Design the sequence.
């Protein structure tokens, strides 16, 4: 079974804290994505990566950075968390057949 | 900017009826479209996909129709069941020099009445 694992399901962080959201896939996929999901706004692409050490901005990259040091791991970083970053974050990876696999999501609350 | 969007935020249907969920896209360069289902508290699950060289694709109880002329995508669910209640997203894939970029619509909530 293919698997995309997000290490944290629920987090509560304070404003200004640095936050790491980790995502690991075991399918040897090149493409990985980070989305956030908010009511009424659907899934919005933050960053994606098409190879190790490669990253591209999505639609809403402001306030976020990413790291892809190994093919299986794609990390989303909030350098200084703010309350408007309270959201559900979804990691995904994409195979060459264009089938995308999602993680279960990470619910982040910034207080 | 270019986007994918959904016409109806909420669709309520009677159990056993057919459901149709619609999606509009604006990027004619998109070559691949996917429908996802998301249940509460879970990540999106793949339902069915269609490539831009096709007009129709059928799965088990689901059919996706693609009209490239008007840039419209629809998901038809036959004999809707309570377990179909979820939020449905359409997504489009654009391949560019940076790789594959998947963008999603806002989602439609399907509610199935018993």
Sequence:
């Amino acid at each position: 079974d293919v698997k995309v694992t997000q290490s944290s399901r629920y987090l509560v962080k304070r404003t200004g804290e640095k936050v790491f959201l980790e995502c690991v896939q075991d399918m040897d996929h090149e493409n990985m994505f980070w989305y956030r999901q908010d009511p009424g706004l659907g899934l919005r692409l933050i960053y994606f990566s098409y190879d190790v050490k490669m990253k591209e901005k999505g639609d809403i990259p402001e306030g976020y950075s990413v790291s892809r040091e190994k093919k299986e791991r794609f990390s989303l970083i909030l350098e200084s968390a703010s309350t408007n970053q309270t959201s559900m974050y979804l990691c995904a990876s994409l195979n060459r057949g264009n089938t995308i696999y999602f993680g279960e999501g990470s619910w982040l609350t910034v207080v | 900017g270019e986007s994918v969007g959904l016409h109806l935020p909420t669709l309520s249907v009677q159990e056993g009826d057919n459901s149709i969920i619609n999606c509009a896209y604006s990027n004619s360069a998109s070559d691949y479209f996917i429908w996802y289902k998301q249940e509460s508290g879970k990540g999106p699950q793949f339902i069915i996909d269609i490539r831009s060289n096709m007009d129709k694709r059928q799965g088990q109880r689901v059919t996706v129709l693609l009209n490239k002329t008007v840039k419209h995508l629809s998901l038809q669910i036959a004999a809707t069941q309570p377990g179909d209640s979820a939020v449905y997203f359409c997504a489009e894939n654009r391949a560019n020099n940076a790789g594959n970029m998947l963008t999603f619509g806002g989602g439609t909530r399907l509610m199935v009445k018993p």
Notes: The interface with chain A takes residues 1, 6, 9, 32, 34, 41-46, 49, 89, 91, 93, 98-107 of chain B (CB under 8 Å). The two ends of chain B are 40 Å apart (CA to CA). Residues 1-8 of chain B have pLDDT under 50 and may be disordered. The longest strand of chain B covers residues 86-96.
